Description:
Elements: E1 2-4, H1 7-19, E2 24-29, H2 35-45, E3 50-55, H3 75-82, E4 89-91, H4 95-98, H5 117-120, H6 124-139, E5 143-147, H7 151-163, E6 169-173, H8 193-198, H9 201-214, H10 220-231, E7 237-242, E8 245-246, E9 259-268, E10 271-280
Parallel strand pairs: 1-4, 2-3, 2-5, 3-4, 5-6
Antiparallel strand pairs: 7-9, 8-9, 9-10
Amino acid sequence: MITIGDVNGMRGWYRLWKKYGRTIGFVPTMGALHAGHLSLVQRVRERADAVVVSLFVNPTQFGPQEDFARYPRQPEKDFALLQGSGCDLVFQPKVETIYPPGHTTVVEPGGPAEGLEGALRPGHFRGVATVVCALFNLVRPDVAVFGQKDAQQLAVIRRMVRDLHLPVEILAGETVREEDGLALSSRNVYLSPEERRAAPVLYRALQAAKQAIAAGERSGEAVRRVLREVLEREPLARVEYAEVVDAESFQPVATVAGSVVLPLAVRIGGTRLIDNVQLVAGH
């Protein structure tokens, strides 16, 4: 497994792979890897000859009061996890590599970026879209995979790729969960033992709403009530949003029909967790 951090090194490898007709798969991450990330590596490994994983904590997607400074960084553990995972190259650029001195150009996404996370975290998706576009230009992947747990991010990236005609196929990787349903996340390490016991309430709320839809409920407002009723039974949970949105536009729906996403953002103590389930009404 190769590890590089500079632009010329990355360009050299993708040129070599392209010369020999090898397809490139890409998994962009902020490090602090867990089994969910490794499942993304395995997913893209099935579709590509060479797999690149980036480790880069992107400063531009964090707000002023968010956790950039304390976001978990564990490069040695990440390298160990990636050994034997199917990863061929780890790209670990510095901030000045991604954002050269005097950097002023950004990608300003609209559409699915405008609500929920976009409204609560101004500038977040601008930072995400800008760094992903930069990484695509550096890695030159044929296919890239993003986790379904960050469903709105996935919708934003898909729209960016379509709108800017980027030659990258975007795959979704299924959310990996603990036995009690808690979605794996690098931020789970922030949870105290008591908060960890409370955190699966997100999964229980999603399952209750999913069951209501399966039983025939088609009112978006009724499904939102189901989500909130379950979440509000947990004293440690503070709900930021519990929504029913169209899977492509990420706009709230009045009637549950077609492909929809049920996204949640909930604070458990001081830790902000997100989760979702995607489904097709009637299926």
